[in-house]
Amino acid sequence: MNSNGRTGASGTAGLVEAAACVLLDFDGPVCRLFSGHPSAAIAGSLRDLLRESGERELLTAEVLGTGDTHLILRTVAEHRHGTELARRIEARMTEEELRAADTARPTPYADPLIWTLVATGRRVAVATNNSPLAVERYLRGRRLAAHFAGHVHGRSRDLRLLKPHPHCLLEALRSTGTAARDALMIGDAPSDLAAARATGVPFLGFARNGRKEAELRGAGAGHVVRSMQEVLASVTGTPAPR
């Protein structure tokens, strides 16, 4: 049995073959959400909102220096849960993500992977920290929405439920009627791995570069691919080009 609790699965092919349902993180495995609307600029917009709200004590060195919007959201969740500020921060983030969805760039091989997973009888769902409204807008634009109908699980107004909290994965398992052992989570961040471990869902890391792979390996990911083509090849049973 491996660290994810899966017996008899060998590498990417084994994980994919055993999965009745594939849970996909959105920004990364499905698309580059901020390819045309950089997340660093959005982080600046969130910091501006903190300043406008007089919340300068939340503008720590870490918050001031980050381009990671989810770090800012988690900071607000930790210190201002349930406040008007938390609502406004989440609403601003959703606005920015909806704008980004219109210029998002598909991750290579993600679209054919989704088509092939469905064609081979597997269920698919999205489990993400992004707004479900932005996810659905992107999926409609790619003509993929029907494959995920009722199975897009993203950020709620309760920012405490962002991954690594397992909430969105649990919702995806519930909506698809899938046992954790029969699912597979594909994510590109240590928070995805942590959420998968918390639910008992096997995990496959997606790393578009060496830095991402090092982060995933460092967090304990046992299986990492550098291209979604490798996952597609596992579904079709054909060798991925090297």
Q: Structural class, from secondary structure content? A: alpha/beta
Identify the strand order in the major beta sheet.
5-4-1-6-7-8
Query: Helical segment tally?
Result: 11
- What characterizes the major β-sheet? 6 strands, parallel
Average pLDDT across residues?
93
Give the CA-based shape: globular
Number of domains: 2
User: What is the string of SSEs from the N terminus onward?
Assistant: HEEHHHHEHEHEHEHEHEH
Quaternary structure classification: single chain
Assign the CATH superfamily of the largest domain.
Answer: HAD superfamily/HAD-like
CATH topology type of the largest domain: Rossmann fold
Radius of gyration: 18 Å
Query: Regions with pLDDT < 50 over 5+ consecutive residues?
Result: 1-9
CATH hierarchy, class of the largest domain: Alpha Beta
InterPro entries: HAD-like_hydrolase_sf, HAD-like_sf, HAD_sf
Pfam families: Hydrolase
Protein name: HAD family hydrolase
GO biological process, one term: DNA repair
